[in-house]
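Recall that a protein's primary structure is simply its ordered list of amino acids. Everything else, from secondary elements to tertiary packing, is in principle encoded there. The following example makes that idea concrete.
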Amino acid sequence: MSTTDIRYMRLALSLGARGLGQVWPNPAVGCVIVSAGRIVGRGWTAPGGRPHAETRALEQAGARARGATAYVTLEPCAHHGRTPPCADALVSAGVARVVVAMRDPDPRVNGQGIARLGAAGLQVVEGVLGDAAQQAHAGFVRRVVAGRPLVTLKQAASLDGRIATAGGESRWITGPEARRAVHGMRARHDAVLVGGGTARADDPALSVRGMGTMHQPVRVVMSRRPDLPLAGQLAQSARTQPLWLVHDERAEKPVLDAWAGLGARLFACPTGSDGQLDPSAALAALGEAGLTRVFCEGGGALAASLLGAGLVDELAVFSAGLAIGAEGQAMLGALGLRRLAAAPRFTLVDTRPLGADVLSRWRRQPG
């Protein structure tokens, strides 16, 4: 693995990140084409998933792609979908060498794209910045392998783990810098998820604001009873920004018809032994619908449900420098733990100050 390969693959990964939140159900791939030490083509998956990164980079490179090296963050596709295979496009363009960060776990591709390149006489190098690519494509991989999207759970809490006062006041625990960071996180996910309690209490818009005109994520509300306010922000914006409701299979038809009439997409979900929506079934439905990355903003009951079921992949915790006390609303609902060994554990990825607050990012430990 040469330093040159690492440098160009790092650039390809940064290009691919531009598509996060905009390309589902496809992966956010980046591609760089280099000829004689010069970058002649750059591309990343376009909004909506087409064209692919390789196609865009090859178009930019034109005839300069012949004899060049292509750096791709995910194995080029080998199957015919709405567009021809990218592996064939690289061969047709005369690319001599392809550096691939990781294989595509999709059974329609897995190893076949690389084999097609090798059979055509191209030199293929695998595994350059493979760990970084695994993280970059974690949502896509999670959906392909596990049938559900990657889940990032965000919490904004006081130093003593409270998200609101006893009377429900929560605006604002964190400062403007932290809130802006949250909007950036929303933008990099396919969907923003909240529970019914949060939707009723806060009437949130769940949109990306303060960052100019940009793509908006799907809003998802998990609520056993879809009796949310029909005059609220979510309902009134359902035709302009996608709104999905995950509800009990026994929800009343007139209520569901009202939401469908407003433009919401409805997902019936079974309940568990506790009478609440089965979080695994809910996420499987969202994965089936194409979502790869979901940003969960609570509340405490939904957060505990996802954590208890082992469905939280990453944590983003914004800690504010104030204390609310035991009478405040807890960051998490009950997990029902009797043994410390059963507690979900996460590994710290990084911490950074945001104004007067601190953001800590954690990743679920395997096992």
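The mean pLDDT is 93. The first strand starts at residue 30 and ends at 35.
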